[in-house]
Amino acid sequence: MITDPIADFLTRIRNAVKANHRVVEVPASSIKKEITKILFDKGYILNYKFEDEKMPKTIKIALKYHPVTKLPAINEIMRVSRPGLRRYVGTKDLPRVLNGLGVAIVSTSKGLMTDKEARQLKIGGEIICYVS
Prior knowledge:
By secondary structure, the protein is of the alpha+beta class. It has three helices and eight strands. The chain has helices spanning 5-18, 30-41, 115-121, and strands at residues 23-27, 45-51, 58-63, 77-79, 88-89, 103-108, 111-114, 125-131. The strands form two sheets. Strands 4, 5, 6, 7 and 8 form a five-stranded antiparallel beta sheet that branches. Strands 1-3-2 form a three-stranded antiparallel beta sheet, covered by helices on one side. The radius of gyration is 15 Å and the shape is globular.
């Protein structure tokens, strides 16, 4: 049993990027699906596929690399709020990752979103992770 499935999800992506894998397969959950959609929308991953028809349900993520230099799009992906120490912030305290070049994924009352979207809607929440 995994005590922190989101940290496991992020670690699988981090390890796959460091090993230069093209595809990583992770167990699916609704919050992991939302994080995957945000990573795709912000251009950190190439593509994804939810495989719901077979058990256990999985997410296949195609990682993105630069075509010439072969550098990964994800330089760093880091868990912030964890089960032992939750990190909640208000609207004024929302972090800027790399002065706005990175993304902080925030769990709010309106669902998962980036720090920029939460700042526009003027809502705070729990900081899930930083991606740069």
